[in-house]
Automatic annotation (TrEMBL):
Domain of life: Bacteria
Record's protein name: DUF456 domain-containing protein
TM segment ranges: 48-68, 88-112, 132-156
Record's keyword terms, sorted: Membrane, Transmembrane, Transmembrane helix
Provenance organism: Psychroflexus salarius
Amino acid sequence: MSILLISIGFVLCVTGIFGSFLPVLPGPPISWLGLLFLYLAPDIPMNYTVLGITFAIALVIFILDYIIPAYGTKRFGGSKYGIIGTSVGLVIGLLSPIPLGFLIGSFLGAFIGELVFNKRQHQEAFKAATGAFMGFLASTFMKFVCCISFTVFFIYKVIDFRELLF
């Protein structure tokens, strides 16, 4: 039973890392679920303090994930079309064979969103797209660091208790 729960937990932690980049998956909450599955394993002693602190971190980052890109976009004079364009461009960029396509796609999506749907001049659209892109990068970096930290902690705990598991 422990091996199954730990395996599911590890898959959730790794899925959370991918969720840091994909706008449809909430990365930190999924990684936190991985930690929860780890502590549900019978051989790993439950630590409510760690679960509480990591849950609070995941929740704060989940909320900030919606605030930071919007703030970056508004700060640089963008609109909701820039934010939507960033997300659409990210997905298209992830599906493209271009290396780092998600970065290029998110910026181009924001630029096109501002240019076409908001009827802005090129310079204004570029400035707004830069704000949307910077907000996206800050938010993505924050989620990625959180999910990597949760995964490293997960692996550390499994290694710490490996003699009980195997």
